[in-house]
C-alpha cells in the first residue's frame, strides 16, 4: 500500500455466459438487489474451468460440458455494494450444458435478461452486456 492511497482489493471470479435467443442467463442471490452472471470465486488452487464447473453446478444445478467451454473475455469494475477500491475481475466463459437451469443453494431467482435489463445487473456485468450487445448477441 502506498502512502498516496489505499491498495486495491481484487475479487477474482469466473462466470458462465449463456446467451440463448438474444437473452442472457443471470442469477440473483438471496438478499441481493442485483443480478449476476452465474459463477463465483475460486477455492484454493482451482483453475478457471474447475471453478466454473463447481459454481454453475452449485448455483444452477446444471453441468457445464468442459470440452465446449471457451474464454470470452475478462472484465474488471468496482464491486457492487463494496467500498471504493474493491474491484471484481470476472473471467467469462461460454459452454454448453446438460440439465435444466434452476435456482439452487444461495440463488433465489434466475432470469433470462435482455440488454434492456442492463440496470438490473452489477457494474462488471454491465461491461459484458455492452460487449454482447455490440456483437449482436444480446437483444
**Overall structural domain count:** 1
- Through-space gap between termini: 42 Å
Cα-atom Rg, whole angstroms?
15 Å
Class by helix and strand content? alpha+beta
| Strand runs, count | 9
CATH class, anyone? Alpha Beta
Order of helices and strands: EEEEHEEEEEH
Biggest sheet descriptor: 4 strands, mixed
CATH architecture: Alpha-Beta Complex
What fraction of residues sit in β-strands?
Answer: 35-45%
**What's the overall geometry?**
globular
Low-pLDDT segments: none
Residue share in helices? 10-25%
The named CATH superfamily: Nucleoside Triphosphate Pyrophosphohydrolase
CATH fold annotation: Nucleoside Triphosphate Pyrophosphohydrolase
Organism: Streptomyces niveus (Streptomyces spheroides)
Pfam family, one: NUDIX
InterPro entries: NUDIX_hydrolase-like_dom_sf, NUDIX_hydrolase_dom
Protein name: DNA mismatch repair protein MutT
